[in-house]
Amino acid sequence: MKNALTVVGLVLLALIIPFFLPGTPPAGMEDPNRNLPWQITVDGQGNSEVFGLMPGRSTLADVRQRLGNDMELAIIAAPDEVGELEAYYGQVALGFVLGRLILTLDATPETLIAMRERALKAEHMESSTKKITLHPEDLARAETLPVRAMGLIPNANLDEATVLQRFGPPGERIPVGETLTHLLYPHLGLDVALDTKGKEILQYVPPRDFEARIRAPLLAARTKADATPQAAK
């Protein structure tokens, strides 16, 4: 039993330690201590930069140049919704941190509807959510669209202590449901979602858009979640 506990402890340490210590990169790789998830710079105009990209300003073409071409691009839509145009990296190295990266492009509903009408195919993902493959002409158009938001799902599991060490105390905490808590950093344009029964997500938006894109929707979601048990009674 003692040996088993030791093994479990070593596995947990291996998962968490990448968020504390830099790794040794293979020859030819960029500095592993740059472009890390907590290295966010802001200016006086409500803009931010992380991973060498600026949410709200950098285009999909900029993302490809910075992170490479190994991405999927599609419209992701729930039933009765227009959806969002998303670029997805299944594995990306951000400094010495590895994770999945989802980038939501700033496409208007009218643009999304037109793209859906020209789409090559649509397939179901989880539940009834659809993944809609773009027409080649729309793939080219997407390259010029700015990135509205970026979501990082680190491979290493995060706990609150790790988040506080890297980002400092949050400006606000918003619990949504029983297992999910959002730590908000408005001045950085960052929302860290900690889920006791799921993966953690770090979402980046321009600080100027934080209230409209992050905080207000979260407050609405919390109000809905709090009202649901009462309605059930």
Describe the fold and architecture.
This protein has helices at residues 2-16, 60-67, 109-118, 136-142, 160-167, 210-232; strands spanning 41-42, 48-49, 72-77, 84-94, 97-105, 121-124, 130-133, 147-154, 172-176, 180-185, 190-195, 201-204. It is α+β, with helices and mostly antiparallel strands. Among the domains are: 59-99 and 107-148, no CATH class; 157-226, no CATH class. Strands 6-7-3-4-5-8-12-11-10-9 form a ten-stranded antiparallel β-sheet, sandwiched between helices. The protein has a two-stranded antiparallel sheet with strand order 1-2. It starts with a helix and ends with a helix. 25% of the residues are buried.
Provide a short characterization of the protein structure:
By secondary structure, this protein is α+β, with helices and mostly antiparallel strands.
Chart the SSEs and their pairings:
Elements: H1 2-16, E1 41-42, E2 48-49, H2 60-67, E3 72-77, E4 84-94, E5 97-105, H3 109-118, E6 121-124, E7 130-133, H4 136-142, E8 147-154, H5 160-167, E9 172-176, E10 180-185, E11 190-195, E12 201-204, H6 210-232
Antiparallel strand pairs: 1-2, 3-4, 3-7, 4-5, 5-8, 6-7, 8-12, 9-10, 10-11, 11-12
